[in-house]
Amino acid sequence: MTNDDGATGIATFSRRSTLSLVGTFGELRLGRDYMPVFVNDVLVDPFSFNGAGAALTFIANTGSRLDRVSRANNSIAYFLPPNLGGFYGQAMYALHEGTKQTLWTTPPPPNSTRTGRHIGARFGYAKGPLDIGVAFGRSTTGDDYNAGTTDEVQLASLGLTYDFNFAKFYAGVNRSKAGRDYARPPVSPLPDATLNSALVGVTVPVGVGVIRVTYSRAVYDEHLNDNRPDPQASKIALGYLHNLSKRTALYATVARLRNKNGAAITIGGPAYLRSASLVPTTSTGYDVGIRHAF
Fold it and tell me: Taking 70 as the threshold, does the pLDDT of residue 12 lie above it?
């Protein structure tokens, strides 16, 4: 059983599992927890990256080199105390976990010692109707000692919300960059890949319910030094959340996504199948359900 990430065992949770020490100094938290950049991004998405309405900031990376992981295993995090006049902050370091190279095994196994390492931080200010935060992170996604390569994904995020009482405004921008470091200069280096994304949204309370609307956009840059336009996608989502109680709510969402210049994103995230004769450009999705918080 892998009880540090919940991937296998009797109860496969694969979610958040932490232990905290809290005092006037702040909070020290250990375990499998959300990365600071993910926290910064999810708080400015009215749909919280869930369902058909999830912003492209998150789903545009799915299944690619830029695939961003929301949680880190073996993490050590520190949170500032809450009595700092509206200022808040956190820092995280997640220990790597992989196979160490050995010369006594024939053939030697691939080295992945640094895979899984993550460092990140988030700082911001929240007082009255305003909440603005900035975050960054760096994750080691691959490490091959024999090939002399290390793959990393760098993340940066800026987000804000402002509550007008009759409506709440959301906005955020995010940059993800995947790169490969080489121990020696290669003949044909793997080019970097970058994804720039942004979203704006609003929630409007209506009685016991909330109307949610977002528009998000994502643009890829594969750094190929050619004249082809960058692949990009845009998405608009409309939803309604009806609270039955403090813990239970009904919801419904409809979303429409449009791809351009070769982007291949669907409402659910992964790229769809395509060929020389079939290149879909739009995707429509909806969800209807009930949510209960335990």
Answer: no
